[in-house]
Predict the 3D structure of the following.
Amino acid sequence: MTAAIVLGQQAPARRRPHSWTLILGLVLVGAVAATALLSLVWLPYPPDDTTGGRLEEPSWQHLLGTDKLGRDLATQVMIGARIALTVGLGSVLVGALIGITIGLLAAFATPWLDDTISAGLDVVIAFPVLLLAMLIVAAQGASLLSVMVAIGLAMSAVVARLTRVLTKRVLGEQYVTAARTSGTRWPGIVARHIMPNIWPTLSVNLALQFGVAVLAEASLSYLGLGAPPPNASWGRLLQEAQGTFVTAPVGAIAPGLALIALVLGVNFVADGLRDIADPARRRSR
Amino acid sequence: MSLLAVSALTVRTAEGRAIVDDLAFDLAAGGRLGIIGESGSGKSVTSLAVTGLLPPALTVEGSVLLDGVQIVGAPERRLVGMRGRVASVVFQEPLTALDPLMRIGRQVAEPIARHRGLRGADLRGAVADALAEVALDDPRITRAYPHEISGGQRQRAAIAIALASRPRLLIADEPTTALDVTVQAQILRLLDDLVEARGMALLFISHDLAVVSAMTSDVVVMRAGVAVERGTVAGMLAAPTDPYTAELVRSARSLDDRLGRR
């Protein structure tokens, strides 16, 4: 009897058709990631090779032309992909670690402490991520690490607030009470019930934050607060190509398109991830 | 000595309203007791108070002695050791009492691993046994998520989880209310058999006089947080002393009559 019921219940649990946004997102992010990986082992020219003519048109020698110092632009864009991904991942890692910790603390805290943390988070969130990151970079000095820490810290408030709300919702669920009645300790409840249940929403947000971090890094570099040379960030390429945009537009268009591809791709992936991470949602499609 | 001794238990909201007012009852090891009451009568709050799981906003006074240990005001550290081992709870709505993102097998495995220290193949075997005990011995159920199985199967899984830690007291808080009537009867029979076979004590909470009388003969009737009557179901049916119990009996009778006439 039970078997029959199970058969009837499980039949519809087929894989739903693939999500096109997820595939498109993975293709875009994958292309950038592949470029970044390739740049580790092979570059068309050494990054500081200025033997090309200045501001050359795209050609077979220089696929994207050269910049005003005669450096190969394709080489610079490839290195930029590496920097964008490194900063994106690093920032999200910093932001997630700090944000999730603070968010969990607030969710478990006494009402008074919870209110205090929440008020603090609201103040931090009121500042734009870029402005906060600029303050931190200005205080610490510009380096790849300080850029990651700065953007990560700035985004951690948003992650913390989301974690707090999600955790509180899960804490109110009966399965947490049920787990506690069977003697599960708090660390076990956090690891086995809270984290898996807030992760679908949280991971989508972290993926979106990755896009924000990539943009923030490009903006910082554009303003001269990013990783110093020889790190060729897309933001700095944009800034350098700005003066010669009319005569050599490729210099601005190439890093700009790369930036758009990565940020759009990450957002598409975030959309697709949401459906995958949640079996209940998977069923409903 | 009784396994569970509740005396002068009072639970208040932050505003000072008493949800449970001066409640007292005793439950011997291996004994059974029913608590009957309408929603809002304080039944479920009582079951949470017994396991020390009341939300912090509620204040508790009085005494709850579980296996000789005072639960009221006890530190979380001491309570964690008793939950599951001494007392387990089966809740009303199995869909919300099971973690939606964890496979049934893992949810059953967890208390077994924690309380009996089993790992690997031993643990898998114990999980299969625990599920077989509640007539869910199908490997597909072990791998299923809660939303993939039926309500009755979910409640069976919840019972397996509650019993996995080998408790001496099972608290069943409206365990069949969310189920179809036919499934309800199966679950009641299953609970009855398991409690009998293991010699567990049973605290059975329900709004339904007929359901309670199927499980136990001793009952406490609660209304608005107060125990208005206590005694055997038979005595209550014959001669209810409290007007509320009389009303309860009358409505149960009239339902029976209407069902009988069909």
